[in-house]
Each structure stands twice: as C-alpha cells, then as structure tokens.
C-alpha cells in the first residue's frame, strides 16, 4: 500500500484508458507514413492523366444527339462555319471561269502561204492558158451556183494575162511572198481557231491559254475573239489588201486582191488544237484556289430551333460554337476551371480513401492492390468520357467497374465507387442529370444483385435486370426533365438498356481474368476447386486418409459456422478441404493417421516433434503454390493455426524441465506456429473448427454439454491468446460461431441407442 498522506500515482492507469483513435485520426495516420508518399504520387499522376485525357481545362459541350431543346439555342459568341453549298457554287463558278488550253501549230499557216506562193509561180510561168492553168486559176474564184453567176471565160483569161504581166516585173514574186508573210505574221503567233475547236472549248471564259510549240515554247493568254477564224479573216483582209496595193504602185489590181482574198478565206487553216488534259489541270487549279465560304453566326442568330430532336448536322453546328467559345476563353479562366476539376478528382478520391482506411485498409497497405483499384477506376472515367461523347454508352463501362468492385471488395464500396465515377464522368463530359441518375440507378441495381455468383448465368441475369432498370430510369427521368415522350426518347432509353445487358455479357467473359488479376475466388471457381476429384485431394485421401476425413468433417462444420455470421461459407468449406494437405508428406507423424500401437514421436525430442508438426503448414503452402491454388486457399493453409502453441509437446517439454532441473528452460516461441494470425473472419472460423473437431475425437462420451464446454474453452483460449486480433471478429460473432459449431459437432457425434442383442465387437 502507499504511505498515508501520499496520493497514488495513476499515470499508467489513465494512459491505459485512452480511447482508440477515431476515423479521421486513423486516416491522417495512414497518410502520414513515408511509404504513403508513393500512393499520393500515383493519385496525383492519375488525376493529371484524367485531366489531360478529358480536356478538363475547358467546359464540356452539354448537348447530345436526340436531345430536344425547350427553347431556341443562341450562340454564346460569334462564330463561323464552312458553308458547303456556297463553297460548292463558288467552285463551280471558278471551274467555269477557268480558261481552256490550246496548242498552236504555226506551221499550218506557213504551209498555206507556201502553197499560195507555189500556185502563183505556176500561173506566172505558164506558156498558155490551158486546162491545168485554168484549173489553178479557178481556185481563186467562187464556183458558179444559184447564188453566183457563171464567170465569162474571156474575162478570166484577160485577168490571167494581167496577172502574168504584173508578176513578170522584176522582184514582184518575192515582194508578193513578203507581203503575204507580213500580213499573216501576227496571226501565226496568236493562232487561229476553227469552228470545230470552238465546240470543244470548256467553261465560259472569254479568253484562252495558247501554248505555241517550237524552239522557244511560249504561253500567252489571248481573247477568244482574237483567234476565231471569222474574226481573223476580217482582221486579215485589210493588211493583205494594203500589202498587195503597195505592189501595184497605183495600178488597179482589184481583181488580184479579190482573188487572193477568196483563196485565203477558202484555205485559211485552224492552227489551234484543244488540250483536254492541260485544260483539266487548269480547272482543278481554279477549284483548288477557291477559299471556303464562311457563314457567320452572331449571338442574335438562332443556331437550333426549339422542339425538335438534335440531328447530326445541328450537333456539328453546336460543336463548332462550343469550340469557338472555348477558343476565346482566357488563360485565367482555363486555369481556374482546371483547378476545380482536379479538386473534384481529389475530393472523390479522398472520399474513397476514407472508406478504404476504415473498411478495407489492406488496399492501402499494398501498392499492387492499390494500383489494381486505382488504374481500372481511372480507365473507367476515361472510357466513360469517350463513350458518352460518341454513343452515350458510359453506363456500360461504369457497370462493369461496379460489378468488378462488388466481386473483389464489397457491395457497399462498389456503390460508393460507382457514385464517384458517375459524378466524375457527368461533370467532365457535360452529360445531363438524366445520365447521372441512369448510370447510378443501373449500377446500383447490378451491385445489389451481386450477392452470390454460383453460376455463370448469374451475370447474364444481373445484366438483364440492370437493363430493365436502365431503360425505365432513363425514360422516366427524361420525361421528368422536360423531354417529350417521342419515339426517339424511347429508342434512346432502349439503347441504355442494351448497354447494360451488354455489360453483363462482357462481365461473364471477363470474370476469369478478374479472378486471376485480383487473386479472388467467386463461387463458380470455388465449386470447381472443391471437386473431390481434385488431384491434391485425391493424393491426400490415399496418403493420409485420417487427415482427409478430418478435413471433410471440418469443412462441413466450418461452412455452417461461417454462414451463421454471414461470412463466405463456401470459401471456408473449400479452404478446409486443403488446409492440411501438407500432412500428406509425413502422414505417419499425425495422430489421425496413426495406429494405436505406432507413434513416430516416441523417442523423439519434443522440440523435434514440434518442428515436424509445424512443418505441415509450410509444406502445405508449398504444395498449394506448386499446384497453382489461388492465394485465398493458401491463406487458409498458412493461417489456420495462426501463432498458436503446439500445446501437447510444450507440456511434455515443460514436464521434463520440472523433472530435471538441469534441463534448459523451455522457450515457448519454439513451440508456436509461425503464423500469420487469421486475417479474415473465414480464417478465424476455420481455426476454431479445426481445433474443436480434433479435440472432440478425444472425448469419451461426446455429449452436447461436453462438446459445448469444449468449444467454449478452445475458442476463448484462442481469443485470449490474441489469435483473432487481426481478423475483425466480434464477440457477438464468436458466440454465434460457438453455437453453430456445437450444433454441428453434436450432430456428428450424437449418441446411439444400444440394442439389447448387440454384442461387443
């Protein structure tokens, strides 16, 4: 006792009564660890990546195809769009205005002049006016017909005589040749277009491009009137007449001027040939040079009328208006908006992190598990943003995430993640409240239906049920939001239902990959794994039949006990099948496989015996890994003994020490299993059932009272030993487990009526 007058020191007692940390303190404590900086860095990177993928520096466009605007939509800023009709008209006009290309061949004109000179030479050198001379001379005069009177032969002969006299003058022939050549020179460079070439001309241009081929090829633009044959003849007559009159030196040679004029008119060739390929190139250049015509919309113009569903053309117009609005936003506005979006990402992430700290801290203790949650969640937001913008199919990807989280973690966590992801998609993609309600309701229906997946048809039925919810929710909420009840709205709601059904089908295909990636087991996989024909179970039955029988009994008892506390009874049953497979390597060292007269531990040191007994945990885990059993089953093998004491050999060793004081003191740590302690309620259930079933075999008369007392003793011993400290098992659940195990063991070891005629075996 403390001396009188001096108060007792109660510091330690006050400290021991300190309350455990609250949720906020636990959250801060989790994030304050140095290794959590990497987790925060991953979250920061994910938020920035989503910011980039979703273009979150600008507000999203809010309109979608099929939406019926209640009022006219006016642009927020002036913008312009390409006027395709006006541009097409301008291109047609430019094509018509493009100049045709002709190739000029001046040698044809030179050939005509040479022939004229040759005929004049033949006429002037003729001795008499015979038939051949008459034929040549008649080329210079029109043929008689109903409009032209026949010529007088004597008059023609007189004109021929005058022609000879004229050209018999010295140098007259050369002068005549030079005069004709001088008159034709301008037209040789420009070219002459015959009527048939005029018909081939394309477009309505008043000018053409003339390319003169020769040693010095040149290209020039010439008016069409300057090359037409009829116009050329009119322009050629005057210079030709002037040149011939110069030769006459005042003498009347009208007959010669008229004759040459007629011959030239009759024999003037076309020197231009239409070049279709070059013309096509010129027309294409003209079309390419046309700039697109822009239609300008002011803020007073109505871009879209009211009361009609938005079609593709109107939606493209609204996208152009939205782009123009985003382009005129200032850097400050974009920065503020970006910070708001990033803040939303971090707020939603913090909400999920708080839940993880409180309900599922293991995700925040393993980087791989954390990334397996973070990456799919961020990918769902990115794909949801992309799908919403194109097909409004964000419900499909969010529903797949909801079902995955529900399978891997917990249903209530799936509801939280679904709400956060849906909100992020709606705010980044510009979807309406209708989309958010549709996605949230559909995913909630799917999540709440994901109770037990004992067949692959389950996911298909979940998809069908979610499809009904998606259809009804989208249609009903759209009407409440003011959309008219049209066939278009019905079709849109049907698409939402189809997307939900598609998500259920996809999840059926993805389920094996989800199980492998997350290391989890659904009821489907557990039923397949718990088949008695499994090779490991077959070997266990052959090598250690007593252990196999023990495992089957424990599995039945543990499944009922787990179901009583709403744990996964099927998982416990399959885990119980495999929990002692390590014993098949040395079955003779375990009592259930020994004969009454044969005990391998006789003569062994208790410490050595303990090592043999403990080794079955490590051996079992190694066998499980070699046979590629899932991680959850390996956990049962490693945790079903926790860090409990191998009590029998520990007592034997202690008894030796008491009998022989010279013996070294017994180290209790040597006689304990390596652990770890049970990390889940299912592992704790298996620990209790394994210990109790083995102990019940030692009862002489396993009455209900004795079984109940044994269950109470063994379970409380493990509770006080701290074996349940890390699995979250409550005292109420422990009591329910005790009750269930007692009932099951009583049924197994029930008493039998002894018949009078029975003889002892």
From TrEMBL:
Bilayer-spanning residue ranges: 37-57, 336-358, 370-386, 415-448, 460-481, 493-514
Molecular function GO terms recorded: hydrolase activity
Keywords for the protein's UniProt record, in alphabetical order: Hydrolase, Membrane, Transmembrane, Transmembrane helix
A Pfam family that the UniProt record links to this protein: 7TM-7TMR_HD
Keyword Cell wall biogenesis/degradation: no
Database matches in SMART domains: HDc (SM00471)
SUPFAM superfamilies: HD-domain/PDEase-like
Residue ranges of every copy of the HD/PDEase domain listed in the record: 543-704
Keyword Iron-sulfur: no
NCBIfam families registered for this protein in UniProt: HDIG
Protein name: Metal-dependent phosphohydrolase
């Amino acid at each position: 006792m403390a001396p009188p007058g001096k108060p007792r020191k109660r510091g330690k007692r006050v400290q021991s009564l300190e309350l455990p940390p609250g949720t906020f303190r636990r959250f801060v404590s989790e994030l304050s660890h140095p290794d959590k900086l990497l987790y925060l860095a991953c979250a920061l990177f994910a938020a920035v990546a989503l910011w980039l993928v979703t273009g979150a520096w600008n507000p999203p466009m809010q309109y979608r195809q099929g939406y019926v605007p209640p009022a006219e939509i006016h642009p927020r800023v002036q913008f312009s769009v390409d006027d395709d009709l006006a541009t097409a008209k301008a291109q047609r006009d430019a094509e018509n205005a493009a100049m045709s290309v002709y190739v000029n061949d001046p040698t044809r004109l030179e050939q005509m002049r040479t022939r004229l000179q040759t005929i004049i030479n033949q006429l002037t050198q003729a001795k008499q006016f015979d038939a051949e001379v008459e034929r040549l001379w008649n080329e210079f005069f029109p043929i008689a017909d109903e409009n032209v009177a026949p010529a007088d032969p004597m008059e023609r002969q007189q004109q021929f005589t005058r022609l000879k006299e004229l050209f018999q003058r010295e140098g007259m022939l050369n002068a005549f040749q030079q005069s004709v050549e001088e008159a034709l020179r301008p037209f040789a460079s420009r070219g002459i277009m015959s009527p048939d070439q005029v018909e081939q001309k394309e477009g309505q241009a008043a000018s053409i491009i003339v390319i003169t081929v020769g040693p010095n090829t040149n290209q020039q633009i010439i008016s069409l009137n300057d090359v037409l044959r009829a116009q050329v003849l009119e322009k050629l007559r005057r210079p030709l007449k002037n040149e011939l009159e110069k030769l006459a030196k005042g003498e009347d040679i009208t007959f010669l001027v008229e004759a040459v004029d007629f011959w030239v008119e009759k024999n003037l060739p076309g020197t231009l040939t239409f070049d279709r390929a070059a013309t096509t190139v010129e027309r294409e250049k003209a079309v390419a040079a046309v700039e697109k015509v822009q239609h300008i919309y002011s803020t007073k113009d109505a871009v879209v009328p009211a009361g009609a569903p938005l079609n593709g053309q109107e939606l493209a117009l609204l996208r152009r208006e939205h782009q123009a609005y985003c382009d005129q936003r200032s850097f400050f506005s974009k920065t503020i908006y970006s910070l708001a979006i990033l803040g939303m990402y971090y707020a939603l992430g913090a909400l999920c992190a708080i839940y993880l700290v409180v309900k599922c801290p293991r995700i925040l203790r393993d980087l791989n598990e954390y990334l397996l949650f973070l990456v799919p969640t961020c990918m769902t937001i990115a794909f949801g943003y992309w799908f919403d913008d194109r097909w409004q199919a964000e419900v499909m990807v969010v529903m797949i995430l909801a079902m995955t989280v529900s399978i891997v973690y917990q249903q209530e966590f799936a509801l939280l993640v679904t709400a956060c992801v849906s909100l992020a998609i709606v705010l980044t993609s510009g979807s309406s409240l209708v989309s958010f309600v549709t996605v949230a309701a559909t995913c909630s229906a799917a999540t709440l239906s994901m109770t037990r997946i004992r067949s692959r048809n389950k996911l298909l039925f979940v998809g069908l049920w979610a499809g009904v919810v998606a259809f009804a929710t989208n249609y009903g909420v759209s009407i409440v939001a003011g959309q008219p009840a049209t066939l278009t709205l019905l079709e849109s709601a049907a698409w939402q239902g189809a997307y939900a059904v598609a998500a259920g089908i996809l999840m059926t295909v993805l389920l094996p990959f989800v199980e492998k990636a997350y290391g989890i087991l659904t009821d489907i996989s557990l039923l397949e794994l718990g088949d008695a024909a499994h090779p490991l179970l077959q070997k266990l039955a052959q090598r250690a039949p007593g252990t196999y029988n023990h495992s089957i009994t424990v599995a039945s008892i543990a499944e009922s006990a787990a179901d009583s506390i709403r744990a996964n009874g099927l998982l416990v049953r399959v885990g119980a099948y495999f929990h002692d497979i390590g014993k098949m390597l040395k079955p003779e060292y375990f009592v259930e496989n020994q004969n009454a007269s044969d005990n391998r531990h006789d003569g062994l040191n208790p410490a050595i015996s303990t090592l043999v007994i403990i080794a079955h945990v490590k051996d079992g885990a190694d066998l499980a890994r070699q046979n590629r059993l899932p991680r959850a089953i390996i956990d049962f093998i490693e945790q079903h003994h926790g860090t409990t004491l191998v009590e029998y050999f520990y007592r034997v060793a202690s008894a030796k020490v008491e009998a022989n004081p010279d013996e070294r003191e017994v180290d209790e740590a040597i006689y304990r299993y390596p652990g770890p302690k049970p990390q889940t309620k299912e592992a704790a259930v298996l620990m209790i059932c394994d210990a109790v079933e083995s102990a019940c075999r030692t009862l002489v008369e396993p009455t209900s009272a004795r079984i109940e007392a044994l269950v109470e003793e063994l379970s409380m011993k493990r509770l006080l030993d701290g074996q349940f400290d890390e699995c979250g098992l409550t005292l109420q659940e422990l009591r329910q487990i005790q009750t269930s195990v007692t009932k099951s063991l009583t049924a197994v070891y029930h008493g039998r009526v002894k018949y009078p005629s029975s003889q002892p075996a």
